[in-house]
């Protein structure tokens, strides 16, 4: 018999590999994505000082009014535009994208493209 592959452990292994190469600075923070079945979360992190500069998720009250269910592509687009707005207010326009070990498609891709349309460069 073959052992069942642990998907969570495999994603965390990829995530560690990505994090060894990607780091956020105060002028160019790391845009970290976490995706669950019901929600999607993103935060801009300054790794040198260990500070979260801005965050957005489908749990935010203003985002919840725009979306129905938080675990779909439409919700990811709203969260992407929201994080772009919040970073623009702080004067940040370039980021490093950290997909968190998830494949770059679906919700993760929609969030990234919406953030680019909102004015972020990465």
SSE pattern:
HEEEHHEH
Strand content: 15-25%
Q: Helix coverage percent of residues? A: 40-55%
Low-confidence stretches: none
> Which strands sit side by side, in order, in the main sheet?
3-2-1-4
SS field, number of helical segments = 4
What is the multimeric organization of the chains shown? single chain
Total DSSP E strands? 4
Which fold name is given in CATH as the topology?
Nucleotidyltransferase, domain 5
Number of domain units: 1
Coarse shape: globular
What's the story with the biggest beta sheet? 4 strands, mixed
End-to-end gap: 44 Å
Per CATH, the architecture is 2-Layer Sandwich
Structure description:
This protein has 122 residues and is of the alpha+beta class. Helices cover 40% and strands 19% of the residues. The protein has 4 helices and 4 strands. The chain has helices at 7-21, 61-66, 73-89, 107-117; strands at residues 30-35, 40-46, 51-57, 96-98. The protein has a 4-stranded mixed beta sheet, with helices on one face. The longest helix has 17 residues, at 73-89. It is globular, with a radius of gyration of 15 Å. The model has no long low-confidence stretch (mean pLDDT 93).
């Amino acid at each position: 018999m073959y052992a069942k592959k642990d998907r969570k452990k495999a994603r965390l292994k990829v995530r560690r590999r990505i994090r060894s190469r990607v780091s956020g600075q105060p002028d160019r923070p790391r845009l970290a994505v976490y995706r669950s079945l019901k929600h999607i979360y993103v935060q801009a992190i300054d790794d040198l000082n260990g500070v979260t500069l801005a965050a957005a998720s489908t749990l935010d009250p203003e985002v919840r009014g725009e979306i129905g269910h938080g675990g779909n592509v439409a919700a990811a687009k709203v969260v992407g535009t929201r994080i772009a707005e919040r970073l623009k207010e702080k004067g940040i326009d370039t980021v490093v994208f950290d997909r968190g070990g998830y494949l770059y498609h679906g919700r993760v891709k929609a969030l990234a493209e919406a953030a680019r349309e909102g004015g972020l460069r990465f």
